[in-house]
Amino acid sequence: MSKSKSLARVGLVYLIAFGAATVWLVWGPDTEWLWLDGLIADLIATVVVFGGSRVLHNSSCYDPYWSVLPPFLVIFWLLAAETPGVNDARAVLLIVVVFVWAIRLTGNWLHDWPGLRHEDFRYAPIRDGAGRFEMAADFAGIHLFPTLIVFLGLVPAYAVLARPGDDINWLDIVAVVVGIGAPILQFVSDAQMRAFIRTRQPGQAMESGLWAWSRHPNYFGEISFWFSLAFFGIAGSPEGWWWLLAGAVGMTVMFQGASIPMMEKRSLERRPHYQDVIDRVPRLVPRPPKRRTVA
């Protein structure tokens, strides 16, 4: 199937998914808590996308959900909140950061995704390992779990947009710098990887540019974005730092405990010299690599 036809099918799934979520938010029962309204709408859209994944026989139908859901929810919270004391300047800064990140990540998916003939290599083992419960594993592991992690990461955005907040302060500046810097770092690292893929030799591992300072600079940028949202939340409600950091910490645990190990296992299987990269190049946080040992 061509990429254009694949995009049309996935686009229709998302139109239905976010249409259903919007119907809930506009005409559904009022829970009296905006965060809960948002979570229910999020889950409704996830279920629809899961249905689309099953119909299209490709769980990568869910992949763009990660970056298109956050703008949807932050705009809902912005428009629906009627709480006095919301800091409008902080709200605007946060929304700018979210949209810069979302546009970059969605654009990256549009550029690199070849269509429904491709599925993320991590998904089949999750389904196959569950045996007769593969549908449950598909829903819970590939669709629901990421949805809940992203929602947890958006809790600071809810705090900024729907709760009273302190005046703008130095931590907001840090949040903006980190939040804008993160997608820039991801953009550069992705561009470097594309250039490498065009010219690499069989079995060659990437270890130049940003990838010489971190084995996963794109993941570092992703985690940094979620920490920027936490910083916005803490800037407005410093007393809630412990729950405002939960989403960013959860993201870090997920990438460190699942995504990175799966990527590195695959690289070791396909690139015999990747162990040398592991031995020298930092795993996540960029810093100068160790010198290569001369035999």
Helix content: over 70%
Ranges where pLDDT stays below 50 over 5 or more residues in a row are none
Total helix count? Answer: 11
Overall structural domain count: 1
Structural write-up:
With 295 residues, this protein is mostly helical. It has one domain. Helices cover 71% and strands 0% of the residues. The protein contains eleven helices and no strands. The radius of gyration is 20 Å and the shape is globular.
Task: List the SSEs and their pairings.
Blueprint: H1 3-27, H2 34-56, H3 65-80, H4 88-112, H5 123-128, H6 134-162, H7 170-199, H8 217-236, H9 241-244, H10 246-270, H11 274-280
Helix pairs in contact: 1-2, 2-3, 2-6, 3-4, 3-6, 4-7, 4-8, 6-8, 6-10, 7-8, 8-10
Provide key terms for this protein.
295 residues, single chain, globular, 11 helices, mainly alpha, 0% strand
Please summarize what this structure is.
With 295 residues, this protein is mainly α. Helix content is 71%, strand content 0%.
